[in-house]
Protein: ABC transporter permease
Amino acid sequence: MAAYFFKRVLYGIPVLFVVATLTFFIMRWAPGGPFDTEKKLPPEIVANIEAKYHLDQPAVVQYLLYIKGLASGDLGPSYKYIGRDVSDIISDTFPVSVVLGLSALMVVVFVGIPAGMASAYWQGSPVDRGVVFAATLGISVPSFVLGTVLIWGLSHQLHWFPPALWEGPKHIILPAIALGAPFAGYIARLTRSAILETLSADYVRTARAKGLSEPVILFKHVLKNSMSPVVSVLGPLTAGLVTGSFVVEFIFSIPGMGRFFITAVTNRDYPLIMGVTLVYSVLIVLANIVVDMIYAWLDPRVSV
Structure:
């Protein structure tokens, strides 16, 4: 298994290389530049700034310089956060985004999967209709709307949770719910469909005919054989939760990586955009590797 993991990591390196190359040249080909929106500066100062960051060089030369720095672990300086390297910004903000993303993932897993199981097992019952309604509502309501409602209701009206900032465990709950609820609804619907299909399988009827208890049938035979589509979604979803929480981070004033990514895009901060994109790509590659390993555990017919 360890050999498979490292082999897949090696396969992921060309993927990261392609992502870095495409991102780099797309940014350079797009109209405008990182210093176009600044206050009008004398041409001599603009020339000095561009020379400092090698922006006066052809795009290919800039690319080779970036790849050379990347090979040595240097993501370059930020154009907008003077005196700070991209690696420093990511190392300061990434742990916050990871904690928020994993907390939201717990909401997705521990709410979405049990809700989907209950909905499928009691198909057609009030429980089923309630779960389907809640899941549809969760999918339909955007995170920024849900976050605003949670702040108004649970913070300002009931005073149960702090409305913003990142100063302790109580500050994690509301943003984790706002970020994870839409995905929990999707996972609940996906789990429901997968379990309904498995419940109608012949081996489940055989297990019931043998007199096995319903909990044993549901958790030992049905759940494990229904998790493949759910696991395939949870892999990239985890990476998306960690790096795609910029709207929730903005609403709750959380000092995560997403806030810097927004400002990097609006300010055309090339090195910071590249750094965040590469972090996201690494997470996607690792998530897919973990998903494949879980596949092998769920279904021994899948070899790794």
